[in-house]
Design a protein that fits this description.
mainly alpha, Helix Hairpins, 3 domains, 4-stranded antiparallel β-sheet, 4 strands, 75% helix, flat
């Protein structure tokens, strides 16, 4: 269901008052609840502090030790009367604090509870939760505050520690210090051998949250009543105030709707100019794409140049290494050939000498054999020696032949040296080839640089195209400025209608103003959109924006000048609307 403006305003007033009322209720309930809980906590802590003061007061009276000594004298068998038993209990500081807390519970509307481990009174046995609290008090003796939503109560628990100065160890201390020596205290309970400062139990002050809840509900009820009355009053006043002006506002809104239709037509013309600008932007994007492609090609060529440069550097380094290896090989080869030659020469001389010695020795052996034969029986021994000498000469000849073979091998090594020389020459040839390839790569780098220059030229051409497209966009902006003239005229009508709307709301007087809307409806000729011819001159962004703003301002001034002095209104007055 679509609501009228009047009911929307009244609904807004109602919702605003409702939101404010709900917020006030929530905040008030929270504050009252927090303050009530804080007050109960402070009250419970005050009660516990009062109990500690009472305990200290009874301890300062110092009656317990004297009373125990008198009891031991009066009752040596340890059987106390009820009167004596009550008298001793009244002198115990902790018991006095317990009595003080119990007596004030009903009067101050709280529940007082005492609990501890291994209590002498079974009613003070701790629950599972209270046992956990006792364990916590051994680590942290500070007070504990607990809120029970199930019981709607708030509890403040404070630990109770034994104090030797207050006489606690007379009942809970070392059994060896028992008054009658039987391990029991003066009241007949077993002594627990506890020490000064040990945790004995805890005092708990439990307060009901019902008064806090009652106060919260009462405050909520008062806020609801007050908010309801205020909401009804605000709706009634809003209805009375807006009844008359809303009629005039409705009429003015109808005129604004008609003017909006004319603005829609002018917006269509602006849309056409914007479409032309979009086409130019597409062309510009295409040029940018070409530019990007050219830059990509330049980047690829640059990378190729870099790779070629690296290869050229690597080949140059390789050529240098080959050259160094060639020089070293040539040096070693020359030294080896010289050494082989010298060794061969010396060996040849030695072999020649050995061969001559073997020949002469063989001749001598033959002569000795001949002479031994002539000597007959007497020369047999000499013949044996001659035979051995001949054998030795034969061995020397064999050694000479072996050495000759070695010389031949040396000659073969010399030939190998010649082969190594040839290999060195081949290495030097490779060096020359590498140097040539390095030269070729360098030439390729130069060619790539030339291509890069051509790519830069293409970028310049693309930039020129982008500049031309920018000029076309500037011309389209001028067309959009012409279309905005019609928007200026419609804006003047809207200003007149806003003036009537302000008068309907009771802000302006409206005297002497028939409004521009009546004149436009009565005889204004429709504006014809005539876009100017596009200019070829370059126009930058700041100049285009400035010319467009000046054109709109000039058109507004002309439209306002069409109406006489009676139609002029104060800008201050319009601003006050």
């Amino acid at each position: 269901m679509k609501l009228s403006l009047r009911y929307r305003i009244l609904l807004t007033i109602f919702v605003s008052c409702l939101v404010v009322g709900i917020s006030a209720i929530l905040v008030t309930r929270y504050l009252i609840n927090q303050n009530g809980q804080s007050a109960l906590i402070e009250k419970s802590r005050a009660v516990l502090s009062r109990l500690e003061v009472g305990r200290d007061y009874v301890a300062e009276m110092d009656q317990l030790d004297r009373l125990i000594a008198d009891t031991v004298r009066q009752f040596p068998d340890g059987k106390l009367t009820q009167a004596q038993h009550r008298k001793i209990l009244k002198s115990v500081p902790v018991f006095a604090a317990f009595q003080l807390g119990s007596r004030g519970a009903e009067e101050e509307q709280y529940e007082f509870r005492v609990f501890g481990e291994n209590p002498r009174n079974k009613d003070n046995a701790p629950t599972e939760r209270e046992m956990a609290l006792l364990q916590r008090f051994r680590r942290d003796p500070s007070d504990v505050v607990e809120i029970s939503e199930a019981n709607n109560t708030i509890s403040v628990i404070r630990p109770v520690f034994l104090s030797e100065a207050q006489g606690c160890l007379n009942c809970h201390g070392d059994p060896a210090t028992s008054p009658w020596g039987d391990g029991k205290d003066v009241l007949g309970y077993n002594m627990e051998n506890m020490k000064d400062g040990d945790l004995r139990g805890a005092f708990a002050v439990i307060s009901s949250l019902d008064p806090v809840v009652a106060s919260t509900n009462a405050a909520t009820r008062n806020i609801v009543l007050g908010t309801g009355g205020f909401t009804l009053l605000a709706i009634l006043l809003g209805f009375l105030i807006m009844r008359g002006p809303l009629r005039r506002i409705t009429s003015v809104i109808t005129g604004v709707t008609n003017a909006s239709g004319q603005l829609a037509n002018a917006s269509t013309q602006i849309s056409d100019a914007s479409q032309s600008m979009a086409t130019g932007a597409s062309d510009q994007a295409a040029s940018l794409e070409e530019t990007s492609s050219t830059l990509e090609e330049m980047a690829a060529m640059t990378r190729q140049n870099a790779e070629s440069t690296k290869q050229a550097e690597s080949l140059a380094q390789e050529a240098g290494n080959f050259s160094d290896q060639g020089r070293e090989s040539m040096t070693r080869m020359a030294s080896a050939i010289d050494e082989i030659k010298e060794s061969s020469d010396q060996t040849a001389k030695i072999i020649k000498t050995i061969d001559e010695i073997a020949f002469q020795t063989n001749l001598l052996a033959l002569n000795a054999a001949v002479e031994a034969a002539r000597a007959g029986e007497a020369g047999k021994g000499f013949a044996v020696v001659a035979e051995e000498v001949r054998n030795l000469a034969q061995r020397s000849a064999d050694a000479a032949r072996d050495t000759n073979n070695l010389i031949e091998e040396s000659q073969e090594k010399a030939m190998l040296g010649v082969k190594v020389s040839n290999e060195v020459a081949a290495v030097l040839g490779k060096i020359n080839d590498a140097v040539k390839r390095a030269g070729d790569l360098i030439r390729e780098v130069a060619a790539a640089s030339t291509e890069q220059a051509e790519g830069v030229e293409q970028i310049n051409i693309a930039v020129a195209q982008m500049d031309q497209i920018t000029q076309n966009n500037a011309a389209n902006s001028e067309e959009a400025a012409a279309a905005s003239e019609q928007l200026s005229a419609q804006a003047a009508e809207l200003e007149s209608m806003v003036q009537e709307l302000a008068a309907a709301a009771g802000v302006g007087s409206g005297n002497g103003r028939t409004g521009l809307l009546g004149r436009v409806r009565g005889g204004r000729q429709p504006l014809v959109y005539a876009p100017p011819a596009p200019t070829a001159a370059p126009v930058n962004g700041s100049r285009r924006n400035k010319s467009l703003g000046e054109l709109i301002q000039r058109e507004q001034n002309q439209m306002l000048g069409m109406h006489g002095k009676d139609d002029q209104y104060s800008s201050d007055e319009f601003r006050d609307m």
